Write the structure tokens for this entry.
Amino acid sequence: MLSYFIRRVVGTVPVIFMISLFVFLLLHAAPGDPADLLIPDQASAEDIADARRRWGLDQPVLVQYWRFLVSAVSLDFGRSFKYDEPVLALIMQRFPATLELALIATVLAIMIGIPLGIFASSRPNSWFDNASSLGGFFGVSMPNFWMAIMLILIVSGYFNLLPSGGRATFGVAEDPITGFLILDSIIQQDWVGLADGAKFLVLPAIVLSVNMTGLLMRMTRSSMLEVLSEDYIMTARAKGLSERVVVWRHALKNARIMVITVVGLEFGALISGSIIVESVFSWPGIGQLLLQGITARDYPLITGLVLVYTTLFIVVNLIVDFLYAAADPRIRLGG
């Protein structure tokens, strides 16, 4: 297993290199100049030239990329043009908000999507199965930006039940410890801050979980239907085992490989796909930071964030591979 892990890690190095090179070249090929966007309109030509020299934009593109690559090996992604702060510090400051939102959305999707898929597969072609399948289609097809706007309009605007944006009410939460607002509130036993943070989490977490819930429901149902048609399931029923034991103990155990795949891949997609949701709800995560970096043509910030997204996908895929072996002993990693 150790040799498998080493091979997978080494194999990711060319992937990260090619993605960083592609993003870097694509950014520089786009029209526009960061100096023109970030320097005030009243700045002189000398001021713009000085800014370009200070940011290294006067160097050839390949020279700029080489300097970035050498620094990135030591996790130094340079300084942001827009914020004039180290890129890694900005990412670490915003990353807990995105991860917290993605984790809550994933938990919601698992708690709703998997049971729905299991119950629908145990009652094929019933009204519950048809209603669940329709809900799954709705979840997979629903554009999250449209749902976010509708929830803000109805829940926040019309009924005034939950906040429409942000992460916490100013002055309510105590000083952060881990950066995860809910976890920090529990550690500090700040129940007022916990309730306040939960209110801000509800709407963006629901929006972010809808697509994953629909996909989980459909994949769980499909996998369970395939397993429930196997001979050993018929044998278990012939032995007199209750339907609950047959479904939850025998069928689900062999259908969970597909579920693990969907959860793993969708969790990575939630982190990288939260850009629109974070923008709509003004959620201070790395998705909103990436959008601001693109608007300002902040090359170091954009490239650093893309590398972080790529690394997260690779880590999630490695975790999924090891969960395969834990869920099914017949799967062996290594060789």
Remarks:
- The CA atoms of residues 34 and 55 lie 10 Å apart.
- The chain has a mean pLDDT of 85.
